[in-house]
Predict the 3D structure of the following.
Amino acid sequence: MNLPAAPSGIRTLAINPAHCAEEGPTLASDHMPIARRSRVSTVAAAAFAALILALAAPTDAAAKDLRGRFGIGFNNNFSSLTSISVKVGLPTDKETLNFQIQGLVGFAILADEDNRFFAGGRVLLPILAEDNLNLYGAVGGGYVRFHDNLSAARVQAVLGVEFFFFGLENLGLSAEFGLNLDVAPGRIDFTTTSGTSAAVGVHYYFGAPKQKRR
């Protein structure tokens, strides 16, 4: 079928379907340089990460105040046995000064443990207070009885950290590493805490912080 000729003064445009199929639609982003697209992606990823951190971070961060609070839990800080542990915070003038007294007792009756019984106490001394984290040192002594019925006096010095997850303000998780000195008749033993690994503990704290009375 013959099509009518285009009127005078109007230009015609010839379209090649095969050429369109090869080229496909062209987007503005296709003409963006690769380096520029990479920078845009990096900026977007950084902005997204900053948003996630801003939403996840606590809004009222403060040093963990343990003055006058009572904590009960367990740990293997002083012996290879998992011992029952009690902590009591002493009243001080500043919330960043968390002096604590700790008592521990652990025993094994049927299990074949290196330590069969342990009882001792320590004093925890504050070193550094961060948001929801306390760095401390500890010194103490106790009595330990081994599987071969040998008994000894134990002296310990450690460096530890106790941290609290946001939303779990009363639950403290601690990790320590230090040295034990065991003194028994005719025997002196010098070892790292809890054998050869870092000692860990969990405590739940009760009560409200108490300041020192003046």
The CA atoms of residues 68 and 212 lie 9 Å apart. The radius of gyration is 34 Å. The first strand starts at residue 70 and ends at 75.
